[in-house]
Specification:
By secondary structure, the protein is of the alpha/beta class. The protein contains 14 helices and twelve strands. A nine-stranded parallel β-sheet has the order 1-2-3-4-5-6-7-8-9. Strands 10-11-12 form a three-stranded antiparallel β-sheet, with no helix packed on it. Helix 4 runs parallel beside helix 6. The longest helix is centred in the middle third of the chain and has 13 residues. The N and C termini lie far apart (about 60 Å). The C terminus is likely disordered.
């Protein structure tokens, strides 16, 4: 008597066993019962890195029958990264008009830095989550006729002057905001700007993505910003995996930190790079990394010899402390590392 395994169990087994797009592509012809699911796995969330891959994606997409309808109905999240040209980005987004979550970190030249070129395609998308790491500067005048921002609930942007040039009222549905860079270089204005964000009626999470963790924490402490919605995270771009898993991971981590009852580090809430790295590895069902192997910054320093004349330029690893809960899986020696400790080594930037 043939064994009949429920489709839900088959899908669960293959979900656990699928670690790459190659796996999903090879199994798509396994059975008519699983074809639709594997197709959705392959195309539901797309990650494209570089102009060559982007052009290849467009060529393959156009080989399908009714490719415009497929692109519109099948693809709901996309990460575009690397040297993808602005015209290629616009061509892709003009086809994939069902995207609700878009990460755009391409260095595709002046086309992407000019919001007027992006406006038509962005407005046509049902976006609720947007990550922009393209060096664009938003102002009240530049977004006056851009409808997409009024619909966003999640925004991650590298515009360092975001708080200086924009009224937060232009984002009436925004619940999650991530800002990059040296956010406190204008301390006299920053405090009032943060307060405006906290007063925004829909705001749930404010993620400050900064490499100067200690200085930002001190600034928040000096101005009594102990609101649990403020979280400090790493200033680095993290790709989703190639099946799009982890596409909301950053926000899930920040939201979890915002919901804890007490600050996890001194008077503030924060998480290190390893939280994202190992979160993505968990999504992919692969082995995690030691947190000390990830949670450091590289700076160049001058090492002076005993005779004071021997000087060598070296890259030094600076380890920041993010709270005991963020290094609990490392060895005891690793837990003792704190801000100011360094691990120097010869060589160029890594």
């Amino acid at each position: 008597m043939p064994l009949c395994i429920p489709l839900e169990i088959i899908i669960k087994i293959f979900t656990l066993g699928t670690r790459s797009r190659k796996d999903a592509a090879s199994w798509i012809v396994l059975s008519k019962r699983t074809y639709t699911w594997f197709e959705r796995l392959l195309y539901g969330r797309i990650v494209i890195v570089g102009e060559r891959k982007a052009s290849q994606f467009l060529r393959c997409l156009r080989l399908r029958q009714m490719h415009e309808e497929f692109a519109r109905t099948s693809i709901n999240a996309m990460f575009l990264n690397g040297d993808i040209q602005g015209v290629t980005v616009i061509e892709i987004l003009s086809l994939c008009t069902g995207i609700s979550n878009l990460a755009l970190t391409s260095n595709g030249g002046p086309v992407l830095k000019n919001l007027s070129f992006l406006q038509p395609v962005l407005d046509a998308l049902p976006l609720t989550a947007l990550q922009l790491q393209i060096g664009v500067t938003l102002t009240d005048s530049s977004i006056a006729n851009v409808n997409v921002f009024s619909r966003l609930t999640h925004l991650d942007i590298d515009d360092h002057d975001f708080l200086q040039h924009l009224r937060i009222e232009s984002f009436p549905q925004l619940t999650h905001l991530a800002l990059w860079g040296d956010l406190i270089r204008r301390e006299n204005k920053m405090a009032s700007s943060i307060q405006r964000l906290l007063n925004h009626p829909t705001m749930q999470v404010i993620l400050f993505r900064s490499d100067d963790h200690r200085r930002l924490a001190e600034f928040l402490d000096d101005h009594a910003f102990n609101d649990p919605r403020i979280v400090i995270g790493p200033e680095k771009i993290y790709l989703w995996d190639y099946l799009g898993r982890g596409y909301m991971l950053l926000w899930e981590i920040a939201e979890a930190k915002a919901k804890i009852l007490e600050p996890n580090h001194d008077n503030h809430r924060c998480f290190p790079p390893s939280t994202i790295v190992n979160g993505l590895k968990q999504c992919m069902n692969v082995e995690s990394v030691r947190r000390r192997d990830v949670n450091f910054r590289l700076i160049r320093g001058i090492v002076i010899g005993r005779d004071m004349n021997d000087r060598k330029s070296r890259m030094c690893r600076i380890f920041d402390r993010y709270g005991p809960d963020d290094c609990s899986d490392d060895d005891e020696d690793d837990v003792s590392m704190s801000s100011g400790d360094s691990d120097s080594h010869d060589g160029s930037d890594e």
